[in-house]
Amino acid sequence: MKKKSLLSRLFGKEPKPVSMDWSLTPPKPETPLAVIGDIHGRLDLLRDLLAQIPDGYQVVCVGDYIDRGPSSVEVLRFLSERDDIICLKGNHEAMMLDFLSDPDEKGRRWVRNGGLQTLAEIGVNGLTEMSGGMKLFEAQNKMYDALGEDLAGWIEQLPVIHASGNIVVVHAGADPAKSIDEQKQRHLIWGHREFFVNERTDGVWVAHGHTIFDQPSCEKGRISLDTGAFATGRLTAGLISVDGTVTFVQS
């Protein structure tokens, strides 16, 4: 009971400070940041979470707006209309774009990894992870029709990184052995095998999603925010103040 009480205090509706290793340089953005983890089609959770973020925070979403959850296209439309929210590209958006550009050669990867749910949302049924040929081209056309040219273009131009102070926000992670300027885009979107193994030595903190954790964390230069919203019903935001304080709020 004691442990449950502690977790409820830490991850309840009121933001609570995170215990940090202060031997590290604290994460200090130029302006307050509210970094939101992977949404995966949960527009309901996103709306609830945004209502909890205090005024004065720049909201940044780490990507993976689509797939697995029930309202992927609605999430894209909602975010594309919010000029006050910075949206980054996740690996699921990258897979969708590959599908739209070359469904026969690149579409199956997306279909296997959540694309089936997004396609079903727009009325494309009967596909399987092994579908190919004309079925994928037909699905591509319906996906384009559902998105429209403007929304498809919005997805394509999404940036892969946002920097503020000594914090960078990316979708998946970064190579800890390379400076931020030297990072490869695929590592920012898909992750790097050393990201959770070795710590950075340049004082830069990386806020990210992509890898699901039971609870968000702030340690060893990493702020991890993916709490599996599509399955757990818990969408997380990390509130990072200019004085280095980090708190978490959840839907």
Automatic annotation (TrEMBL):
Pfam families, per the entry: Metallophos
Domain Serine/threonine specific protein phosphatases: start-end pairs: 88-93
Gene Ontology BP term (one): RNA decapping
GO cellular component, one term: cytoplasm
Higher taxonomy: Bacteria, Pseudomonadati, Pseudomonadota, Alphaproteobacteria, Rhodobacterales
Gene Ontology MF terms: bis(5'-nucleosyl)-tetraphosphatase (symmetrical) activity; phosphatase activity
InterPro entries tied to this protein: Ap4A_hydrolase, Calcineurin-like_PHP, Metallo-depent_PP-like, Ser/Thr-sp_prot-phosphatase
Residues in the signal sequence: none
Protein name: Serine/threonine protein phosphatase 1
